[in-house]
TrEMBL record:
Domain annotation HTH tetR-type: ranges: 3-63
PANTHER family for this protein: HTH-TYPE TRANSCRIPTIONAL REGULATOR PKSA (PTHR30055:SF226), HTH-TYPE TRANSCRIPTIONAL REGULATOR RUTR (PTHR30055)
Positions of the DNA-binding region: 26-45
GO MF entry, a single one: DNA-binding transcription factor activity
InterPro entries from the UniProt entry: Homeodomain-like_sf, HTH-type_TetR-like_transc_reg, HTH_TetR
Domain of life: Bacteria
Gene3D superfamilies: Tetracycline Repressor, domain 2 (1.10.357.10)
Keyword annotations of the record: DNA-binding
Pfam entry (one): TetR_N
Protein name: HTH-type transcriptional regulator BetI
């Protein structure tokens, strides 16, 4: 029962932090969305900052949501979290660009779109949280911008490589095409699930299939 409530608090906090921002969200808002008293929230978490850190920790370590915790959860659990998030950003960017640096022949455009979608979906909550609250968390925002720059550079590099090999059609502007592809992937992998004006009931699998179908057919050489 208590683990179910922790998950409910997590989900409510994600919704509120992304919709109205961290600074404007109060414990009472989270309690109302979960359907419990403010005192119950404080039984589980020492405060709003601990809830925010819990949300970010669950983003980079999905299994964390299933753990058992002593209540209330305090920031002692999240020492070094900011550095941990930065390391995840760096490792993710390195892994994503790895095939480009290695020049692996077997890698192709559909695989690129699939991998990019999966990476955006995996870290959706954390990325959207930083984008929404960048002025409240400037260090995280700075590192997130660097991560995005590496990601965009790798995407552009892959497009250049695939164009040279004749895998995809010629592109008039690789950088703008990269931005277009990334924004399409980001909406379907991230915003549609957490930050869309309309409520969508589309599975992540269906969202990925739509992206794959449209982007692959739009750019692959016939």
């Amino acid at each position: 029962m208590e683990n179910e409530r922790i998950k409910a608090i997590h989900d409510a906090a994600v919704h509120l932090f992304l919709q109205q921002g961290y600074a404007r969200t109060q414990i009472s808002h989270i309690a109302r969305e979960v359907g419990v008293s403010v005192g119950t929230i404080y039984h589980d978490f020492a405060g709003k900052q601990e809830i925010m850190h819990f949300v970010l920790k669950c983003t980079i370590s999905p299994g964390y949501l299933e753990k058992d915790f002593e209540r209330p959860v305090t920031d002692d659990l999240f020492r070094g979290l900011e550095e941990e998030i930065m390391q995840v950003f760096r490792k993710s960017a390195e892994n994503f660009s790895g095939r480009l640096k290695q020049g692996k022949e077997a890698y192709d455009f559909p695989s690129l779109i699939s991998d990019a979608f999966d990476m955006l979906a995996q870290y959706a909550v954390g990325c959207l949280f930083i984008e929404k609250n960048q002025f409240d968390f400037p260090v995280l925002a700075r590192n997130y911008r660097e991560y995005r720059e590496h990601f965009f550079a790798a995407m552009t590099g892959y497009l250049s490589l695939f164009m040279e090999k004749g895998m995809i059609r010629p592109l008039k502007n690789k950088e703008l095409t990269t931005a277009l592809i990334v924004e399409q992937l980001a909406w379907w992998a991230m915003d549609m699930r957490y930050n869309s004006f309309e409520e969508h009931h589309i599975s992540l699998e269906d969202a990925k299939e739509v992206c794959m179908d449209n982007l692959v057919h739009a750019y692959m050489q016939v």
